[in-house]
Amino acid sequence: MSKNSRYPAYDVWAEHTHWDDHTKQVVGSRRSPQVAYQFFSHSEGLLVQTAASELVNDHRLEVLTFVTQHLDEALASPIGEAQRKVGVPPKKQLYRWGLAGIEAESQARYGTGYVALKKEEQQAILQEIAAGRTQAKEEWSQLSPVDFFKRFLRDAVDAYYSHPLVWSDIGYGGPAYPRGYVRVEKGLTDPWEAKADDK
Amino acid sequence: MTNDSELTHHSVHYDGHHSNQMSQRKYQDGADVCIVGAGAAGGVLAHELAQAGLKVVVIEAGPYWNPQLDFASDELAMRRLGWQETRLVDGQDPLRLGHNNSGRGVGGGTVHFTGVFLRLHESDFMTRTIDGVGEDWPIRYQDLAPYYDKIEREIAVSGPDHFPWGAFQGPYPYPVREPISANAQLFREACEKLGMESVVAPLAILSGPFDGRPPCINRGFCNQGCMPNAKYSGLIHHIPKAIQAGAEVLSDCMVTEILMDGSRVSGVVFSHHGLTYRQKARVVILAGFVVETPRLLLHSATPHFPDGLANSSGWVGKAIMPHSSHDVYGRLPEEVRLYKGTPVLALTQHYYETDRDRGFARGYTLSAHGSRPVSMAGAIAAEREDGTFLWGQQLREAMLDYNMYARITLVGEVLPHPENAVTLSGLKDEYGMPIPKVSFSYQENDRKLYKHAIGEMNRLIGAMGGTPEHVVSDTAHLMGGCRMGRDPQTSVVNEYGQTHDIPNLFIAGASTFVTSGGANPTNTVMALAARTADKLIEAMQLREV
After folding, report:
1. What is the CB neighbour count within 10 angstroms for residue A41?
2. Cβ of B391 under 8 Å from any chain A Cβ?
């Protein structure tokens, strides 16, 4: 497994002049996210950003701001959830309770708030929630910690892997309309695609 | 622009009719046929019936997309192509819905399908007789063969000269797609090493110019909506042709009730921008897929039909089937770049037919399947077959190797079971309709089948020189819920999609499937719709319905 990008010199956004206007607008807006929350309180927003940073293992502020903004908009939006398991609270409630649950776990285990913890402690708390081993009884009385973790992980990952900086890290060529991909067979790349740095 | 999920679209680009002017509807005094749902089935029916001179109105809950303005080369933004309204899911294996298997908007699921265009096999229509599982269909392969031919010609399906499995051996109307992606090449080489035949996939994606549309440019965003219009969808093919032939399409209009006049259907009620309208019609065809069609029937109960319309059998909503669609992501020593090219360009049906030595009935298709960062990361993080999560540093490191991964996907048969069902929950949606509940649990044969397939996918990754790293649990497609049959006590519609209980109420689409088959269903959906159209045109001319 790689610890760093195979493509340190690659910047997918540098190609955006070759993209259609709608795609440019959709992807470009992620590079300058808003920070005003519609759904989260200020402290919830900070908590989401801190925990999401552990979920995706990245600490770049511009990327995490977008992840948090995306989550905030998705939760404020009236658009449905596509599916919700019987017994799982609706998305707004799931997040309100789940975030309170993270905070309560932090208080129960370390006697302080989540954002003030060390990274290892923050990770440990998420690990326990993912495994359903929670200590704060009241905060988790109406939701399963595992259901919340799964939803939070999925949402954070959706947003994170939609950011062009992350596309560059992983060497994703991304949008290719109208030009398409010409060299698609084994070992071939179009001139503008990411090229691995062998060193 | 701050919100990816903001509902913006361009319905009014449709010059034939402005769907926001309900006072100027073409057939507001009554249509011959009202079709609910403008997807794979609804598009074919609208086109055929309008061409036959019938007055056709198609009512679609979602927008009338403009590919150039509404689509983007982006996974997150294009989730909106799926049906995002919340459904409750239940059972031991609750389904993922939305973009995973449904569409919303003109073109329905064809707007975001991969375009894999397969026929069912002869055995699929008689699994009870041959294998003692599932149920037999009231039709045989030969009944559908001329309609498969017709649809494949009509949309210029590309595919191999020789197709080695099933009754249809090719050739396809258009030549195979070339070149194929690295992932598809690796898959085919691995198949050959292991003694499995493979082909370049038959696709509803152009390999040469056709009907004013260009061949595919390997952009790879089939699941996000094709922008060059190289991939077939009802949105760019059947619906515009239906409009040209006189049909009217009402988009952004949600049908909330079927109207009855005694024992016959008289039309539907629909909601548009908060106001309620009626559309009268001599015949109503429900083509709203596996969840919405049963939901509408159950919700439209009357004193005459207390258990829901067309439900004297009690089978409305029952025996729904997804395909098991597990994925194996394997890490290779060389770059694969799963984002490049049409997602599915190679497949094998080596394990399609029953072999009792395997310990289960029926079989499956395996496809080389591309993947983009959001779908791969989300799947390996949160949908793992072993029930664990991958996150933090491990997920990050796995995804830094994104370009080193190959992926194989299963389309596995799931046998019908009455407890896998769509029912109405006690919760209401914005229209005041009960939110549907969709229950699903795999049965023993289904589990044995997908476990076998995972084993074979792992072997194929090994034959590529790779290591299977991530096994993802997923499903694809939905079928059943209003199955066809000869016996009105155990089925909802007859072989033509006409409901047993109400002669002028028809059902089209995947909901009438009796079994799931082990292949992508869209070709069968469209062929069945064309067959229904033929029958209906004849019956309406004879005034039989």
Report:
1. 11
2. yes
CA B270 to chain centre: 24
C-alpha distance from A90 to closest chain B C-alpha (Å): 9
Contacts of B393 in chain A (CB under 8 A): 57
Interacting residues of B256 by C-beta distance below 8 A, sequence separation 6+: B269, B270, B271, B276, B296, B299, B431, B432, B433
ipTM of the complex: 0.98
Q: Do B217 and A157 touch (CB under 8 A)?
A: no
Compare CB distances from A80 to B71, B86, B389 and report the shortest one's residue.
B86
- Domain of residue A136: give its range: 16-170
Q: Kindly report the number of other CB atoms within 10 A of residue B530's CB atom.
A: 23
At residue B18, does pLDDT exceed 70? Answer: no
Question: Could you tell me the residue ranges of all domains in chain B?
Answer: 11-541
User: Looking at the predicted structure, is the pLDDT value of residue B8 above 90?
Assistant: no
When the candidates are 3.30.260.10, 1.10.1370.30, 3.40.50.150, 3.50.50.60, the CATH number that belongs to B11-541 is 3.50.50.60
* Mean pLDDT estimate for chain B: 95
pLDDT band at B15 (very low <50, low <70, confident <90, very high): low
Asked if the structure places residue A95 within a domain, the reply is: yes
Cβ neighbours of A172 in B, within 8 Å: 339, 372-373, 402-403
Q: How many domains does chain A have?
A: 1
How close A82 gets to chain B, by Cα (Å)? 4
Q: Does A199 map to a domain? A: no
For residue A42, tell me if it sits in a domain.
Answer: yes
Handedness of CA A11, B179, B373, B336 (dihedral sign): negative
The overall pTM is greater than 0.95: yes
State whether B391 and A130 contact (CB < 8 Å): yes
Interface of B with A in 58-97 (CB under 8 A): 68-77, 80, 82-90, 94-97
Of all residues in chain A, the percent with pLDDT exceeding 90 is 94
Residue A58 lies in a domain: yes
